[in-house]
Structures
1.
Amino acid sequence: MTRLGFLIARSLRREAPLAALSVTQSDLLSDLAGKSVALVGNARALSQGEAGAEIDAHDVVIRINRAPMPSAHSHGTRTDWLALATSLPAAERARISPGRILWMSHKRKRLDWQSAQSPGFYLHPLADYEALKAHLGAQPTTGVMLIDMLARSTLARLDLYGFDFFASLSLSGSRSADKVPHDFAAEAALVGNLIAQDSRIIRN
């Protein structure tokens, strides 16, 4: 696809040509088979801990959006996969240096050409987004979309870091829970149920 074709497809919300730029979900998840995965959320409380080396010791490290990393001591340094629901300025892309981009947002008009053309690019299906939204009764966060998807893989272990469902707010902004379009109680319940049913998922 040319850049012009991409811009036209994005503007007109033509899902098929955009999806053709993406690896399939099954291929994405097959890359995690038998591996340990660290999914790093953006809760402020994580910055008070010492999990950095532990995070980086995983086979795959996945971070979210602008991926704030105030210190290597608390957050580690590696970013193998970066899951986005927002635009990523060039300086942030260079800082994070992700090995792979996952576009999780249903807002296709925000998707940029550089991300769509990057190696191993993944576009999260709209049907998955809508199903999770219906289950939660609210727009799902990028984090809970990832947890929902990763639980369907054959990974060996999924460690969740920086997930307190907005109890300590977010390192990526100053908004309070009532200012964002998410139901954190519903998300906490969903993740709690997954953890109870799947011993591979551990909330740190």
Note: The mean pLDDT is 94.
2.
Amino acid sequence: MGLSDTLSARFDVEEHGSDIRTELIAGLTTFLAMSYIIVVNPFILAEAIQIPGYEFFEVVQMIAIATVLSAAVATLVMAVYANRPFGLAPGLGLNAFFAYTVVLGLGIPWQTALAAVFVEGVLFIILTIVGAREYVIRLFPEPVKRSVGAGIGLFLLFIGFQELQIVVPDETTLVTLGGIFGNPWAILGVLGLVLTFVLWARNVTGAIVLGILTTSLAGWGLTLAGFFERGTVTPETLPSAQYDITPLAGAFVDGLANIDPLTFGLVVFTFFFVDFFDTAGTLIGVSQFGDFLDDDGDLPEMDRPLMADAIGTTFGAIVGTSTVTTFIESSTGVEEGGRTGLTALVVAGLFLASLAVIPVVAAIPEYASFIALIVVGVMMLQGLVEVDWSDPAWAVSAGLTVTVMPFAYSIADGLAAGIVAYPIIKVATGEASDVDLGQYVIAALLAAYYVLQTRGVIL
């Protein structure tokens, strides 16, 4: 039995309607779509993590290594234990909360913030073992489960439009159309987007990968030919790898000393809340897109991918990075046909390989990688056909789930809006008995949380 046969048997590739080549391409696609985190996460966290005796860019390199290691470990667990094609890494938004709110805003030492992430991860492991996380997610109303994929799609579109500078901030309307054809970054992004859509429409295998690579090569070609200076359509500098992370790894232990229990508890709770619902939304949304959900809108054996997320968060805190979560960019690999853990295994392997070629990974311009978000965002809107728009409870719950995500810039907030709305409309239409007791409880807890959170009582 050859290697391909062994892998096919280990991950049940054929049983999932896939093949080795498709899984490999899907893994490469997912990695390219989420590889930007290797560069973005360190620069965000390095604003808050200051280590005596080390310069800013040295700390950036330490965090880059921690980012890669945590992503590789979490995704490896997803591959081997859960057999799902999902990639994991330190999450955007959670790292910004870590750096700007907890450390820089509240003045909490970064070591203590890492300790909070560690505690959160351990709690997730325990709750996953006893089945509590899966139980809560299964209580999500069905219209929320059926619409979350489209909500994530709109969220992806909004992120992609901003990163390509197709949409820019506006003082009057908050956002508006950017000066696309006066901006080389946006021009290349739009042209790459057109190419990718054309390849996808013609059913070209690996369309998203080809779009990313072609756009990247075009940017570098124009730069090397002298049309643009470095830093215009290509990264201005390419960092060299540094592998010594001993000043960062294990720092969470020091963070557990001399903590204020109330403040520390609030920080842990906020990390816990956002990560719980972000992960739940991503898993359901990407699973819906890949047709992994059962007839009730649930992901079979959900506890396994949830455990990968929990282990990744715990390990990430140990090596020195913020909360690890399932990435919405996993949908890019699912679109390419990834259906098993072999896709995730490829992603984990590529993360480890990037330790040796971090400058090459960093050479991919951000506008090239964000093309994937727009393409997949459009594709994920097809989930809206599964919503019964003639039912008021479905229409309101699904509508809020889909729209609040991009407007609030949060998967968790979109889920919460749909979950709270569902029992309210069911009661209003005289169908209160259709709502489980657990759904009422979750809705009430979420409503209370947002009252306190928006009043500034809690973080």
Note: Strands lie at 88-90, 167-170, 174-177, 324-326.
3.
Amino acid sequence: MKRIILLAGLLFFAAEGYSQGSTDYGSGLKVNFNEDGSKYMRFIAWNQIWFRSSEMNPGTMIADEPATTNTDIGNRRLRMLAYAQISKRYMIVTHFGINNQTFTSPTGSTKKPGMFFHDAWNEYAVVLPEAGKKFSLSLGGGLHYYMGLSRMTMASTLNFLTIDAPIFNWPLIDNADQFARQVGLFAKGKYGKFEYRMSINKPFATNTAPVDVTNADNAVAVDNSGNTRWSKAGYFEYQFLEQESNLLPYKVGSYLGTKKVFNLGAGFYTAPDATRTSVNGVVQKHDMKLFSADAFLDLPLGAKEKKMALTAYSVLYDYDFGPNYLRNIGIMNVGAADPSFTGDRALAGAGNTQPMIGTGTIWYTQAGFLLPCKAEKPVVRIQPFGAYTYKKFEALEKSSSQFDIGANFFLDGHHAKITTQYSTRPVYIAKDNIDGMRGDFLVQLQIYL
């Protein structure tokens, strides 16, 4: 831990500012099939390596040994995206790779993780987004990321402000979806400064058996959709200042002052009969009804030559998965339950798990400030940031607050950056009792081309 903090300190105090991105990248890894570049195929590849020092939840063991702390290194994401347009009206998108490779897992080795498609869809532009036209419309279908709900539900993983997404922005993650995607049909487009995205999808089937209870107040909804019915999703956004591209669904986390953006948005996701409870042997189905409202700001500040910028995002989620629904998640969790532990265990489980998603309310806010440049051709650009999360779940009698604080060190904009972050998480040992906080210190090296 001391070495990590020393590294972060040296980066923070010794670094100079650097301009966003690099002209070396241009349009990236792109193959043009005509002279004006309107017929092309583009490739994007990226890798995010995490080094972590983590405090484990009480009652954790790692590889059959009791553990209160853990230090490791892993691949958070290793991905490649390819998309092509041979006509202005037609586009095909594919996105594949691996996630979350660690040295071990609660169930054993994680060697050779499976590579799979994250996205695979076809798209047709019904009304082209041409100059002078207010309205545009594209239709598509396949395994897609147009999942509505919020800006961060469709976030790009290449340009986060913080080290990662907070995860609850993907409320179905690897349950009723495939890593935040579902198979279905979508429509997207703009009308002036108004942008819309809508989809109808067939959720992936879930079959968790509900625990039978005798008192309806104690019933806990679980993911069990059987022969799933179609879900519906949408996100609607008004872009007050500069317009953002909607060629691809991935929303930018931080423009580093290269655009003037202020957006207000709202979205939803609904799925009939998505969860179940059981009371006295009688199974009841529950609709999933998820809603959000958010705001995003990215503005250059001060004198133009200093290249300072403010980035801020805030979102309120109102989640209804059914009574007392609660899901515990730990990113790249390596901890398992220690059977010999005799103290108070964390309700969320072992390792770095925490109450992440549930019926209730979540408010999340993040902000970052791009520090001014001090040299004509500086080496590194620095962006300190912070984030706050408030959760109030029906299944837990006490609400929780947690925070993230860190900084991005841009070696070459988002193309090459080092991110340091300290994050806290609440440890519930009872529904009404939080036994303090546990922390994770992370260092990420990101490269994308």
Note: The longest strand covers residues 282-301.
4.
Amino acid sequence: MAGTGVTWLGTPTFPKAARAALGDTQLRRNLRKATHTIRDKRAAAVAELADWERLRAAGAAIKDSALANLDVHLERLEAAVTARGGVVHWARDADEANAIVLRLVRAAGADEVVKVKSMATAEIGLNEALLAGGVRPVETDLAELIVQLGRDRPSHILVPAIHRNRAEIREIFRREMPSASPGLTDDPRELADAARHHLRLKFLSARVAVSGANFAVADTGSVVVVESEGNGRMCLTLPETLITVMGIEKVVPSWRDLEVLLQLLPRSSTAERMNPYTSVWTGVTPGDGPRHFHLVLLDNGRTDALADEVGRQALRCIRCSACLNSCPVYERTGGQAYGSVYPGPIGAILTPQLLGDLSDPQQASLPYASSLCGACFEVCPVRIDIPRVLVHLRSKVVAAKSGASPEAAAMAALGWIMRDPRRFEAAQRAGSLARLLARQGRISRLPWPGSRWTSARDVPAPPRESFRAWWRRTRG
């Protein structure tokens, strides 16, 4: 479970990890069933709104406007939170954010914290940092709890344990939960009751809670968390100290902007018209909720991503996971193959930008973890053109390669061939010989270096006759 920044230590490149995942038939069955179920429900929820496309356009415009004036909105947010009794901390990277949280937990005299599901805290490896500092983190989201107890890695933004079925979850609970009944079955209600019993004492005894944030409103300093189970509400109201770690891109200027985003998020994520629990808090309120509130504003590569005119649209992301559920690559490989806290299409464009080192083989492999079919863009509630960013990042991967890259050598050779009509026609004749390898109009295996392509996909057989040959034969 060790993590560094956004990716996990020792993670192979995506092609290697994907090949291993493709061999796990149980994983593929679990993923197919779950993604198709969520996808179908989302489509039905979206179809209820005649103005869905207008909402998408509004959501994209709101996020772009907020990002264009991010410095102004963040300063307004800090002033509003401070005026209402909260404390704001600025963290440049994961190490700084973890140090801030650990210091605050120790100052509160706690050796255990309850956590609301949070991508930002997973991104910075907060759980590992807390454990190293002598503090036990307790995940309270059911899926996150399953991952934590199973000493596993999450594989989905919304449903981290999507790769597990009920029988596997039952075995994890039997093995790791002292309070679980030996006769526990895989009935969903029994599993939920076991988790509820396990967490109840944690909620009542916790002195410190750690959360992420879906949004923050600059006008009032309000922070918003949406969830479906109620565990977040318990964490946000019972402990004496609440620490929220929030990526700086989550700020929106006003409540009017929030109105649009809160229509887009639930339908795109859980296929609900409204989340069962939408928690909003503003600083500290005497006699109600936590007595101390700390907001940690996290950069961790976001400012660098903001400087990229094409790639910055990834910062619009509201973490709905619709792109994962629609992606044919994710459906077959699962999230762990991406080696990142952020899996799927959004992870393929967000992770390399946050880490910013496309000379690293694992990061460089992520922009290629896509067929560029465009399904992710069609379902994104804030219209992130993920295929365009993938192609953009692929060009940066090639540019980051030291020396003569295979791509550069191939393009140079192609340029030499195409500069001379005789060479070009000879190459066409040679290429037509590949028909000898075709079966039913497809070529499944080519010699090296063509084998690099056919190891993962077929090649259409070339036509029997080139255009030049056809023109010469028919036009004389």
Note: Residues 3-302 form a domain with the Rossmann fold fold (CATH 3.40.50.10420).
